[in-house]
Specification:
single chain, alpha+beta, 2 domains, four-stranded mixed beta sheet, 8 strands, 7 helices
Amino acid sequence: MKIKSSFNVLALSVVMVFASCQDGTKKNSKELKNDKLIAQANVLAKEKKVPTINEVISYDIGFTKLHKMVQSSGLENMLNGTKPYTIFAPLNGAFERLPKGAYEKLLASENKDELAAIMSCHIIPGLINEQDIIKAINERGGSVKLKTLGGTRLIASRKRGKIYLIDKNGNSGRLMKTDIETTNGMIHTLESVMLPKK
């Protein structure tokens, strides 16, 4: 009777150990599946297409006015290409601060050259991030001149930790969101429109 009882306890112990091993195997199997899924998700995230400057401008509702200007000025292909550029991108509100009717006038086909000149005031060849600008400002005693695609020089300075740009006419604007990376450059949003010298 005692032998039979001991045997039952032993058999029950073996079954429990076997069951827990199986449970562990199932758990490990689930974990492995989950790990594989996570790894696949990371690969997919890395392979996600990064947009060009032009694509960001065309998708973002904050740039609807700028997008129209890029299209009308003929700079769309350049901002879709592979050559790197840094663009100080005026937000919709920046164009609303222009004199009444100025924005609509610039979009007229006969003003394409003037529009291209204005757009070129916002573009710098190459990649310049926020830290590059801050470093240059600090190294040059509080302000630095940035040469734009159109040849206009914008003055960049800092006030209360924010970067401001000033054009040749004295128009100034603060950089809002900085370091928006694209496949062909960098976008910094701007609260004002920069203009070439009158």
